[in-house]
Amino acid sequence: MDALEGLTVLDFTSHLAGPYCTKLLADMGARVIKVERPGGDPARALQPFLGDEPGPDRGATWHYLNTNKESVVVDLTKPAAGGLVRRLMAGAQLAVTSSAPRVEQELGIDYARLSSYADIPVVSITNFGHDGPYRDYRLSDTVLYAMGAEMYSHGLAHREPLKLGGTAALLQGGAMAAVAAMGAITAYEVHGVGQLVDVSLFTVQISNIDRRSSSILAYRFSGRVQQRPQGAGGLAGGVYPVADGYVEVTATAGNYWRRFVDMIGDDALRDPRWENPMTAMDPAAKEEADGIVYPWMLSRTRAEVWDEARKARAMVAPIYDGADLFGDENFRARGLWTEIEHPEIGKQPMLGRPYIFEKTPWRIRSAAPSLGQHTDAVLGEIGCSTGEIGRLRAERVVA
Amino acid sequence: MNEYLPLKGIRICDFTAVWAGQTATMYLADMGAECIKVENPFIWNPMTRAASPRINAMVAAILPPWIAGHPPEPGPRPWNNSPAFIQVLRNKKSFTVDSRRPEGLEIVKQIIRSSDVIAENLALGTLEKLGLSDEAIRRERPDIIILHMPAFGRTGAYVEGRGYGAHIDSVAGSTILRGYRDSSPSDNAGIFAGDYWGGMHGAFALMAALRHRRRTGEGQVIEMAQVESSAHMFPQAALDAAWNGRAHRSVGNRSIEGFVPNGVFPTAGTDRWIAISCRSDQEWRALVEFLGNPAWAASPAMATATGRAENEDAIEERIAQWTATRERDELFHALQAAGVTAGPVLHAGEAAEDPHLAATETWKRLSATEDYPEVDWLRPAYRFTKSDIDLRTPPCLFGEHNDYVYRDLLGFDEDTIERLRAAGHVAGTFAPEALENG
């Protein structure tokens, strides 16, 4: 049995943040009906593509974000679409949108309209929320991270601030929206209330903890502003090169330092002077320690270093790239990877479960849908006759 | 305001530590769950309530603000005012017990019997050593939901792996993707994006399991290895490797989706920057017009995404020259008005004062306590129009709810509580040996 079995989600989202939210629901068993615009979700056009050959069913990002979903193509700008949305809403327990507030209204999927069709929860993901001076402003992943107050302290002091990799900031917004969606579903099932849940991507960035909410509270407490560091790491801390790449090291004074020294196994580092916090901040001391640490590191591979670190319980781990994650036998055996099968791309590997449930599995029931793959079936379910569907197609309301 | 709290009546026995675990249970506490944090006065859990239990004004001043920006006088209980940790304690309750001793373990078991969820992300085997294996927990409460959030998994080759956020980001493929294009990963400063990502996924998983239990009466065990959930933050890199054999590296502030320009540019003043992205030809044309249609930008080579990609270095250089003399915030609003995606790189102080965040009631002022001054605290990130999901109670102080737990919840009489206090279970501060080891 799936944890979210029996839950139907009407999904008006596109691009990255909204689809990640509904993916989390779909992968745990919710039925997610994705209402796609004619021409498709812009995420279908995002690289990378299989074999670098573009195509609406060939993108890895698209496939990743839309597993287990159904695609119904409706042109929400057509007046006749309103009736279809009303009938689709009648069979859903949750709706999720990710259009700008003005666009929500233009498309007839704002909360006032949707809740007039059915009193169910509506999670509305927007750049800046539904109020406030930036309400109608645009966002990209980079601008979002910049305004989120952590970019400023990420990077090096003498250079420009740095963003996270990939599109992490947008996906974080989607993950937070999924938590909100589960809260809204719970309130609906337990208390019988539908409601608007307003998720602002900007507020999500500000609210979270990869130092930023800490930095903001620290500013309020102390008046100090978190700056970019002058350089990396203190005494034996930060990223070290090894024979085949890099490892991340934490060896702060105390237990972590002692375990690190156990790992390196050089008695010169056992001298108690190394444990003085002032030594840890002395560049000359760091150079001296590095004189011992670097040769040890450079004569070992990441795997060898990690083996030694685990034996010593040292806080050291390898720096992996995507190929390392894909190739790692341990993560593969545990189920981090699974497969999808799709007519256009065949069988391909896919990132698998982020969590292991004992009784209600995360699972792939179907690969991401082709554009409009489920239009006829879903319209049939809400009572559209074949003739009506034909007419709607001819009028380009559906596709 | 109506209540309609989704998780009202749900109790969490909370053994989480550091950030990811404590964040997961915070989201559930925000939703109305009664989250009871189990704290041991004899054990200093590293990176859970403060960087160090002995932090004072002098030490705090030499450590980075995010971890040690305590109030100017941290006072005798710095574990109640570390900015890095206490805000994940909002809406929670704290009680103390030495669960390593039989009578302490029995107290924990009594809490478990009335709990719906138990959550932990301690070093692997810690709960088992206490006598709280999954089986033992289920003997107390058969339909409980157990959430484990190990760093690298509870099975497989890496079970003994130790790590904080930085190490999890490393293995998950995050660290290799950030950094300057022209420098090695050893220039990377620590960012811990996986912590709250893990917290979100842990909270999501728990609410899914709670739904299953409402429908079937069945509890279950959930294992969420933090590195595995974090791998999902970078699907493009993971899948390009899996599908095309291509290993991604840092692109600096450029876009992995091929948007040009996409970057961070200097503005007038010291260390003030603006981020600008053109995600379509339309946004590019808006930018060119905003720049006053200079010849370099109006050339046909720049009109297409392919052409801009070929000229990325030159475009970045021109834009940086242009922004360098402009005032950041004027540029932000003017570019947005012109239809260009742009935003200031805000530092913590600027974010704290941002007018949009103030207007949208992102913060809530709480009164001063003996441990921290009156300041504006973050509320939960989303607004529910009916459910009262909010910052309801301030971060729990160490042992703040001992009376509630021992008296009201467990129903112990005064004599018993006094005896437990004398034995060190009931405490308002850490025992000297915990402070010494911290």
Walk me through the topology:
The complex is a heterodimer of chains A (399) and B (438).
Chain A: E1 8-11, H1 17-27, E2 31-36, H2 60-65, E3 69-73, H3 81-90, E4 94-97, H4 101-107, H5 111-117, E5 122-126, H6 141-147, H7 168-191, E6 196-200, H8 201-207, H9 212-222, E7 238-242, E8 245-250, H10 255-264, H11 277-280, H12 283-298, H13 302-312, E9 315-318, H14 322-327, H15 329-334, E10 337-342, E11 346-351, E12 356-357, H16 375-381, H17 386-394
Parallel strand pairs in A: 1-2, 1-4, 2-3, 4-5, 5-6
Antiparallel strand pairs in A: 7-8, 8-9, 10-11
Helix pairs in contact in A: 1-7, 7-8, 10-13
Chain B: E1 11-15, H1 20-30, E2 34-39, H2 57-62, H3 65-68, E3 92-96, H4 102-113, E4 117-120, H5 126-130, H6 134-140, E5 145-148, H7 165-172, H8 193-216, E6 221-223, H9 226-230, H10 235-244, E7 262-266, E8 273-277, H11 281-290, H12 295-298, H13 305-310, H14 312-323, H15 328-337, E9 341-344, H16 348-353, H17 355-359, E10 363-366, E11 375-378, E12 382-384, H18 402-409, H19 414-422, H20 432-437
Parallel strand pairs in B: 1-2, 1-4, 2-3, 4-5, 5-6
Antiparallel strand pairs in B: 7-8, 8-9, 10-11
Helix pairs in contact in B: 1-8
Contiguous uncertain segments of 5+ residues of chain B: none
Number of helices of chain A: 17
CATH architecture of the largest domain in chain B: 3-Layer(aba) Sandwich
Give the helix proportion of chain A (percent range): 25-40%
Provide the spatial order of strands within the biggest beta sheet of chain A.
Answer: 3-2-1-4-5-6
